Amino acid sequence: MRSGLQTLRDLLAKAPDIHYDMQAVLADGDLVAVFGRVTGWGSKPVVVRSIRPSVGQSGCFSMWSSTRFEI
Known about the structure:
Layout lengths: L4 H10 L4 E10 L2 E9 L6 E8 L10 E6 L2
């Protein structure tokens, strides 16, 4: 899947029943971890985890993200 705002807009236009429920946000120094749950994007809910530098960080940064079906 491509990244970016237009990809998100295209996805939501094709599947208006997608819902994102943010479960938790954790911060430690300049790192932020976000845990959420997506429904309406398949047969089962999907758990999403993302870790990245906090907003306002300048320069290049990495973002680590993973998804899996909810058990």
